[in-house]
Write a structure and sequence with these properties.
Elements (H helix, E strand, L loop, with lengths): L49 H12 L6 H14 L7 E3 L1 H12 L1 E4 L2 E5 L6 E6 L4 H4 L7 E5 L2 E2 H4 L1 H8 L6 E8 L2 E8 L1 E4 L3 E7 L2 E6 L6 H14 L4 E5 L8 H11 L3 E8 L4 E6 L8 E5 L6 H11 L4 E4 L7 E7 L5 E10 L15 E2 L4 H8 L9 H14 L5
Parallel strand pairs: 11-12, 12-15, 15-16, 16-19
Antiparallel strand pairs: 1-18, 2-9, 3-4, 4-5, 5-6, 5-7, 7-8, 10-11, 13-14, 13-18, 17-18
Helix pairs in contact: 7-8, 8-9
Length: 405
């Protein structure tokens, strides 16, 4: 889980002692450079580190041109990956804006989500954001995006298509779509669009499915709004779907758990310096039958959401084992506009159990076949064909006859 309590503006010098302009350094194998030139007399073993040595060899021997920013990105990424911690990572200055957008669940664009299909020659629109420019222009899910600014979208590829559709707020982009074999053009003005984080629908007359895509910005707000809308629509039981949920922000998770659970500990954390913290719920809670769907791609906050409900005996957890991400990361912003996210502590369950490397064990184990797994990931699996949802409905039917809350 990415623990972010505000922007930590920490100036970190990633490559200490880097020689500017190719200043040469001591090489352990030999005190001489090619051609007999000697390293500076002041150089002694220990005066230079390995990165300096490598840089000296690159400066002298490398046949190609050295791209300084690329070298720095590679070295910084290597330092982080060298920790052996799969949850710590480097974010280049080029990628930082996209990273921040994802954390904020908002981006500047036209409000569509597209998916590639190898059998087609365009990108299928899978989602049109409510209130976005595309919705206002009449774009519908199922339409196919075939051109951006006159350039063939399929030939551009997914990444370049997305890059061209996005841009600065207030600027325009011309898109060509195809619907039922007929193409149409629209000119859309880019604006800030909130990503749809939570969706819901009724599975049967009294049970609602609440799908939570992540636990980043506004996830708690949108989840509670979905729960209340479902309840007004007649839902008397809930199925939470956090499959493929990558996690998110601690405070968003804690607020949602506080809304759902009775009084008691919700979440425990221990930082790198040994300091411990416990978040508690008040006595207000939502008392109704619940189930939670998880899979191997449920990470971090998604796991702790499910396990908290499980440990309070508040919901039945259904699916497969989860990823086991129990460390949280702080993001540190570097002076060149890049950043590093490094693990700085561990989260534990309300009952003080670690999930690191083990994840959670569902109450009811149900695994989807490979084809159904892919279709569920892309939102193409109808709920009547989703064995995990059907198992949740069965579990809730049993719970409704014995619920004592």
């Amino acid at each position: 889980m990415k623990k972010r309590f505000g922007i930590l503006s920490v100036c970190i010098l990633v490559l200490c002692g880097m020689a500017v302009g190719g200043v040469l350094c001591y090489v352990w194998a030999s005190p001489y450079l090619p051609g007999g030139a000697h390293y500076p007399a002041a150089a002694e073993p220990g005066d230079y580190d390995k990165l300096d040595e490598i840089r000296a060899y690159l400066d002298y021997y490398f046949v190609g041109d050295l791209d300084e920013p690329q070298l720095m990105d590679g070295a910084a990424s290597g330092l982080i990956s060298g920790t052996g911690d799969r949850w710590s990572y480097y974010i280049s200055a080029e990628d930082l804006a996209s990273y921040t957008e994802k954390m904020e669940n908002a981006y500047v664009g036209v409000g569509i989500t597209i998916r590639a299909n190898e059998a087609e020659d365009g990108f299928t629109v899978t989602l049109v954001n409510a209130g976005g420019p595309a919705e206002a222009a009449g774009v519908q899910p199922g339409d196919k995006l075939i051109a951006v600014g006159g350039a063939n979208a399929w030939e551009l590829g997914m990444d370049e298509t997305k890059n061209r559709v996005r841009g600065e707020a207030g600027t325009t982009v011309e898109l060509t779509f195809c619907r039922d074999g007929e193409s149409y053009d629209v000119t859309l003005t880019r604006t800030k669009v909130e990503t749809q984080i939570v969706s819901w629908n009724m599975l049967r007359d009294d049970t609602a499915l609440i799908q939570i895509a992540n636990f980043d910005t506004n996830s708690c707000r949108d989840a509670i709004a979905a729960i209340e809308a479902a309840h007004e629509a007649g839902a008397r039981a809930l199925v939470f779907d956090v499959r493929n949920n990558p996690g998110g922000l601690k405070h968003e998770l804690v607020k949602l758990l506080d809304y759902l659970l009775p009084e008691g500990p919700l979440f425990r954390s221990t930082s790198y310096d040994g300091k411990s913290e416990v978040d508690y719920s008040d006595k207000d809670c939502l008392s109704m039958p619940m189930a939670v769907l998880v899979n191997r791609d449920s990470y971090s906050a998604a796991e702790f959401f499910a396990v908290a409900l499980q440990e309070y005996d508040w919901a039945t957890v259904i699916g497969t084992g989860t990823s086991g991400k129990g460390y949280y990361q702080n993001t540190f912003y570097l002076t060149d506009g890049s950043a590093i996210a490094i693990s700085t502590g561990e989260y534990r369950t309300p009952q003080d159990k670690s999930l690191v490397g083990v994840g959670i064990e569902p109450d009811v184990y149900v695994e989807l076949g490979s084809e159904d797994y892919v279709n569920q990931y892309y939102g193409l699996l109808d709920w009547q064909d989703d064995k995990q949802i059907l198992a949740a409905l069965d579990a809730l039917q049993t719970d409704e006859g014995s619920d004592q809350r």
